[in-house]
Amino acid sequence: MIDIHKITRQAILDIKEYVPGKPIEEVKRELGLEDVIKLSSNENPLGPSPMALQAMIDEIKENVHYYPEPQSPLLVEKLARIFQLKPNQFFVNNGVDGVLSMIAMAFIESGDEVVTSQYSFFSYQSVTSRMAGKMILVPQTQDRRFNIDGIIAALTPKTKIVFLCNPNNPTGTITYRDEFERLLAAVPENCLLISDEAYYEYVDHPDYPQTIPYLKDHSNLIITRTFSKVMGLAGVRVGYAIAHESIIRILQKVADAFPVNRVAQAGALAGLDDREFIDRSVRTAKQGRDQLYQGLSKMGLAATPSHTNFILVDLGIPAGPVYEAMLAQGVIVRPLGPQGLPTCLRITVGTPDQNERALAALERALQVRVGG
Length: 372
Ligand SMILES: Cc1ncc(COP(=O)(O)O)c(C=O)c1O
Fold this sequence. Notes:
By secondary structure, the chain is α/β, with parallel strands linked by helices. The longest helix is centred in the last third of the chain and has 24 residues, at 275-298. The chain folds into 2 domains: 20-47 and 276-371, Aspartate Aminotransferase, domain 1 (Alpha-Beta Complex); 50-271, 3-Layer(aba) Sandwich (Aspartate Aminotransferase, domain 2), CATH 3.40.640.10. It starts with a helix and ends with a helix. The protein has helices at residues 4-7, 10-13, 24-31, 50-63, 73-83, 95-107, 123-130, 148-154, 177-186, 245-254, 262-271, 275-298, 319-328, 352-371, and strands at 37-38, 90-93, 113-117, 134-138, 159-165, 192-196, 221-226, 239-242, 303-304, 310-314, 331-332, 334-335, 344-348. It is 41% helix and 15% strand. The structure holds pyridoxal-5'-phosphate. Residues 42, 95-97, 121, 165, 169, 196, 198, 226, 228, 234, 239 line the site of pyridoxal-5'-phosphate.
């Protein structure tokens, strides 16, 4: 019998398990429910961009028996045109998750320090621990934001990467331009600053930093964006990094042979032209956020003001049983106990009907709890 502990790298044995949003299929099977809505992984409730969908269908019909182009050149060229950068400044991969893995694989040596905030995107911790890096989590501000001064104070000669999640998942809050500039100025040349902007399109705050212009003078800055959220393509997995060409060359060295499938490349390429859908997705998130805030306030609950397509609500009581009671009503949300916020739920903004249903399910779950 194999002694799995003996042959597995210690860094892998040490990884804390990630608890993803429960898939709809699993909840239907386990609870015997037919009508289930998923508001737990910040996906787009409108579905995919129709233009992306048509392009994906065409690609399947015509080309799915061919391997894809390894580095998504059409997509890269289009992104370069849109952002007025050079194509060699883009790295497309299997979602931003894939991009983060490649960054970790390329740059984190055993014992390197990696700094981010407490209560941020869990993948930063998993990709770091996989490479035996040492994760430093800096406490957040009172208003659940990245504490930029705390992060600057945590930098040491051993820091290899700083992960900034802006907007931040799971709090929905943002880092402002002046804070971003302070951080960028403080991060040493040979330390990477990753600005993960998975929810970029949803933000309309005037002090949210537009980070692309900073690339010119900061070759240690990496910006990540995704097609999973506003474009509705989470299921096909495509995201990208924008950075100095020397960084992109290294990421390409560690990438798999065919990291982004054909269907995803075609969908992303077409989706970039679907302005109408992107605008509608953003509008849906904003209106839905207001709907959720209002419904919560009627229950005496307040959400953290969000700049994204999800909200964080602190129930003030253990959120696990409330999550379970909502699940039993066919509404999947995300309990944040595994992330150290045991009284909080994260709820993805859905369609108006889905939001209504989530609010009703939450109200019932709370009543049952209080009543019981
Ligand atoms: C902050 C953040 N970064 C990255 C990702 C992963 O995005 P992708 O679907 O492109 O892998 C997510 C997904 O939820 C996210 O919230």
